[in-house]
Specification:
Blueprint (H helix, E strand, L loop, with lengths): L1 H34 L11 H25 L8 H14 L5 H50 L10 H29 L3 H21 L9 H20 L16 H30 L45 H12 L24 H4 L1 H19 L19 H27 L9
């Protein structure tokens, strides 16, 4: 949470310097230049240069944290007086380099921002599958409970199945309705917009049908979640188009200052949340901390059903696949706890799980961020670079140079969003067909 607050402060400061820096800092820079010649002279402290420097200082801080946490993981926690001082020092020192140096940094940040967006693509796909797996486990556990109780369920008896169906159909139908509105508002005689909307619609429907095929068996929820997210990306791309012939909202003065200020606040919080959630989710998704259950290590929980699967149905036990994102995972302690609860009804006693043996996992070992915090800080470093691109339209000056213009109005922003959407299309298609076209390999979501 403290890292989150630091990054949010950087995002707000970058936006303030980007749009109001010259007005606010004109007096401050005049006084500073008398004591530190050349410090924050000209436009060094505001505009795009101001945003670059805040981004640079934030990225350097998290890059340093990568090195420290890789060598001594405990440095991820505590020591906040030193960390905050270092963070503030780096932000201050970031105003010393020349504008040309920061322009070169912007070129570097542009490339690494693409990597950050790709990490978000992996995270949204992983989230879609995790939501499907979680709800499916709940549905199956409820069905097994009905079976053990000799209860004949009705059509709507399983609330988890109802929730799955409601969420899937709501997202799918909502995406269709939203795309219809986009056709009406942004379509018309603009071929580029019609292409964006049409390919989002066609691929969303096609991928949903593919996912529901028996040979694929990925369910309805994952493609519905991604269909909705891709519709959002399409909307963002259409509103970012600076072509006034296609985007009626791109005309100068078409947006009130209140709506622009609101957009800037949302942008600050959204990039902060994207950075923090991406860092945490990506750390857990790659599962590089060695806490995965292993087929070769029964003590680590391999072959044991998850808590939601207890008691197991015959012939349904699933062995988790080590190293796979979203694979079925359970620690020996969690499985033993579930077993103890089950045995209380029969009076049976199960042997306790030995503590301290090799292969057992402690409660703290499930916390991927704490186990491998350097992965967390790598993503935060990339997010710091992405901050510069978000605030400056990917380094492309436009009508957003003043707070009365759209802060994301540029061709670069438009194509960045559509590029993210196409990456989701490609990777999601691969996750669906890979187990079928490559049967000799093991995939975590088979």
């Amino acid at each position: 949470m403290t890292y989150l607050i630091l990054f949010l402060m950087s995002a707000v400061l970058a936006i303030v310097l980007r749009y109001w820096g010259e007005e606010i800092l004109s007096q401050v820079t005049a006084m500073a230049s008398t004591t530190v010649p050349g410090f924050c002279s000209s436009d060094r402290c505001w505009g795009m240069q101001g945003a670059y420097r805040i981004s640079f200082g934030s990225a350097i801080f998290f890059a340093i944290m990568v090195l420290f946490t890789a060598a001594v993981p405990i440095t991820h926690l505590g020591g906040w007086l030193v960390k905050v001082f270092l963070y503030a020092l780096l932000l201050g020192l970031s105003f010393l380099p020349t504008n040309d140096t920061m322009a070169q940094y912007a070129d570097v940040a542009r490339g690494f921002s693409v990597i950050f967006l790709l990490a978000q693509v992996l995270i949204i796909i992983n989230f879609a599958y995790d939501a499907h797996d979680w709800l499916k486990d709940k549905m199956d556990a409820t069905d097994r409970r009905f079976e053990l109780d000799n209860f004949e369920p009705g059509l709507l008896s399983n609330g988890w199945r109802n929730l799955y169906a409601f969420a899937s159909f709501s997202l799918f139908i909502g995406s269709l309705v939203a795309l219809g509105f986009l056709y009406n508002i942004f379509g018309g005689s603009c071929p580029l917009h019609n292409f964006f909307i049409s390919e989002t619609l066609v691929l969303g429907v096609v991928f949903t049908l593919i996912s529901m095929m028996n040979v694929i068996g990925k369910g309805l929820l994952p493609p519905s979640i991604l269909f909705a997210y891709n519709t959002y990306l399409c909307y963002g791309a259409l509103t970012n188009n600076p072509d006034t012939d296609c985007n009626r909202f791109a005309a100068s003065g078409s947006q009130s200052e209140a709506s622009i200020y609101t957009g800037l606040v949302i942008a600050a919080f959204s990039v902060t949340w994207a950075a923090y959630s991406s860092a945490g989710s990506f750390t857990k998704a790659v599962r590089m901390d060695g806490t995965q259950t292993s087929v070769d290590n029964p003590a680590a929980g391999a072959g044991s059903p998850s808590v939601t699967d207890w008691p197991p149905a015959s012939g349904r036990d699933k062995a988790p696949v080590a190293g796979s994102a979203g694979a079925y995972q359970s620690s020996a302690a969690a499985a033993a706890a579930a077993a103890d609860d089950d045995d209380e009804e029969t009076g049976a006693r199960r042997p306790a799980v030995p503590q301290g043996d090799k292969g057992t996992t402690s409660a703290s070992s499930d916390q991927g961020v704490e186990e491998k915090p350097w992965v967390f800080h790598i993503i935060m470093c990339l997010a710091g670079m992405y901050l510069a691109m978000l605030v400056t339209n990917w380094g492309s000056p436009s009508s957003a140079n003043s707070p009365t213009g759209n802060p994301e109005l540029s061709n670069a922003s438009m194509w960045a969003r559509m590029g993210s959407q196409w990456a989701i299309h490609g990777l999601f298609l691969w996750t669906m067909i890979a187990p079928t076209c490559c049967p000799g390999r093991s995939f975590g979501r088979e």
